[in-house]
Predict the structure.
Amino acid sequence: MAVLRLIVPDEPVTQKRIPAPLTRGDRSSLRRLLTFGIGLVLPWLLLSLAIPPLDLPDYGAWTGIRPLEQKLRILEAFAAAGDVDAVVLGSSVSDFGFSAQRLSQHLSRELGRPYRAFNFSTGAAEVADYPELYRLVRTVARPRSVVMVVCAATGPRSDQPRTEIPQTPVYYLSRAPVGSVLTSPRLLQASRRLWDLPPVRSAAALRDLIVFGSFQSLKGVGSDLYAVNEYGDRISYLYESSGETLARYREGIVSLRGASSDAEASDPYFSREDVQGLREMARLTDADGCARIVVAHDKASHLVGDTPLPRSYIVHRRQYVQHAATLASAPACVFLDDLALQRHAVADYIHLNDYGAAAFTDRAISCWTGRASDPQSTYREPDLERKDPPLTFNSFAFLLRRNSPRERERLRLRFVRSIAVPVLGNEPLFVALRQPDNTDLIRPARREGRDITMAGEDLPRDSRLVFIGRLLTEVNGQYFVLNQPLAGYGWESAPRD
C-alpha cells in the first residue's frame, strides 16, 4: 500500500524576538486612535438613549410605505407577546374588511386556548405582492398559518411589472432601502435590525426637527385618518351615504374578459406575476412549515343590496378564487354567494367598516371550521342618505351600534390622533346622535383625558339600534361639525353620584 508522505523541509531555528517597548510616539498614536473610537461610539450611544423618549414620528424610510412599516412594528410587539397563529395578507379590502381580532376571539373560545391572528393587509396589494409581504412578516414573526385574501378581478390582468406600477406596494419597496435585500432572508434581517436602531430610524425626523423646528417632510396620508388596533385591523366607523353609488357599482359588474395573452401558460385569470406570486407563496410557506388558506372577498358594493348579482359573475368569482387556491396549493374558502350585509356595514363602495368586517369574518370562520355561524342580527338604521342640517354633517360622521340599553347609560368616544387630524382646542363640544326615527339627540360632551363622554339616558330603550354620530361645536348659537374621525367607542353604565 502506497503511503503519501508530505515532506516539509526543516526550518532554521530562529531566536525568539522580544517586542520593543512602546515609544512615546506609539503611545500618542494609540491614545488618538482610542479617542477617535470613543468619539464615534459615544455619540451613537447617547443618541440611542436620547431619541426614544422624544417619541419622534416614524417616516417609514426603510420600506418607503409608512402605514406598512407601522403595521410591521405593531406585529413585532404582537409576536413578542405570544405565538402568532395566523397572519392575514390582502389589500385595503381586507385591511378594513377582515377582523383578525374577531378571528382571534372566536377561535380562542372554540379551541379553549389563546389563538392569535394578525392582519398584515395593506393598500393596493395583490397576490403577486404577497411573497414580499410574507418576507417582511418573517423578519419579526413566525406565523403558523397564512390567510391569503383574494378578490376576483373583473377585467384583464396586466403583465406590466408590478415594480413599474405606481401605488403598488412593490413599486415603493423596490425603490426603498429594503428593496435590494428583499429576496435574501439574512440580508433582510440584518437590514431591518440596522434600520431599527433609533439613530437610523429617526434620522429623517431628527433632521427636520433640527433644521425646520417641525416635521416638515412628514406628509399625512389617508391611512392616518384611521386607528389600527393591536391585531393589525384598520378600524373604520364611516358609512356610504349614497345608495345610488352602491347601486351603480353593483349594476356595473361585468365578467372577466380574459387575462393578458402574455400570461404564463395562458392562464385564464391571472397575470404572469400573479401566477408566480401564488406559487412562490406555496414555496416560502412550505419551507417554514406554515399552513395556508385562500379566502374570497369582494368590493363592498357587491356584498350589500337586495338585487341579486349576475349569475355569470357569481360563477366567475367562485372559479377565480378556487383557481388562486390551486396555484397556491391551498384550500379555498368561498362563502360569498349568499352573504348580504346591511347598508350600515359598508364604509364606501369598496370597503366594509368595522361592522361589515365582523360579519364577514364570522362567515369566514364558519367556512373553514365547518360549523354554522350564528344568524346575523338585524339593526334598525336611520336614513343614511339624509344630511340635515348640512353644517352638522361631514365625511367623518360615524356609525354607532347599540345592542341593548343600560341603566344610567353613558357613551364613551375616542377619536383618532394623528398628523392628519386637527387637535381639539378649548371649544365647547357636543355629541349629536341621529336616531333610527331620523331625529337628532344633541347633548353636551365632557372631556375625560383622551376620551369624550356623553350621557345617553334620553336615547330609545330599544335593542339593536344604529345611530349616526357627529362631534359638534357651537358658535353664536349655531352647531358646526368637527373633522374628527372615530377610533373607538363603548356604551357603559355611568357611576352613581
Remarks:
- The longest strand covers residues 465-475.
